[in-house]
Design brief:
98 residues, alpha+beta, 4 helices, 38% helix
């Protein structure tokens, strides 16, 4: 199993781009077998600047399934909206630490 971790900060006044990005990426993630685990909103920072405002965690059967989504032409068509919608976004493939 592999886990997708997306850490982001929404850009101000970019609701339209954010809406298009989310509406486009969600079906791609689900079609690749993504199973939502949790959506998180950052409310405070103990250490650091709390530049991140939200996080998304999704499980997939394989890391390749995640990588394939982001390499796809359908996802690449969303990149301009992604870059407009978020002032910061990190899209990470993770695995359980043993």
């Amino acid at each position: 199993m592999a886990t997708l971790l997306v850490i982001l900060t929404a850009a101000p006044d970019q609701d339209s781009a954010r809406g298009r990005y989310v509406a486009g990426v969600q079906p791609l993630l689900k079609a690749a077998g993504g199973r939502p685990v949790k959506r998180l909103r950052v409310t405070d920072a103990i250490v650091g600047s709390a530049g991140t405002s939200m996080a998304l965690v999704m499980d997939f059967d394989t890391a390749d399934a995640i990588a394939d989504v982001f390499a796809s032409a359908a996802y690449q068509a969303l990149v301009d909206d992604r870059d407009t919608a978020f002032s910061n976004i990190e899209i990470l493939i993770t695995e359980d630490a043993e």
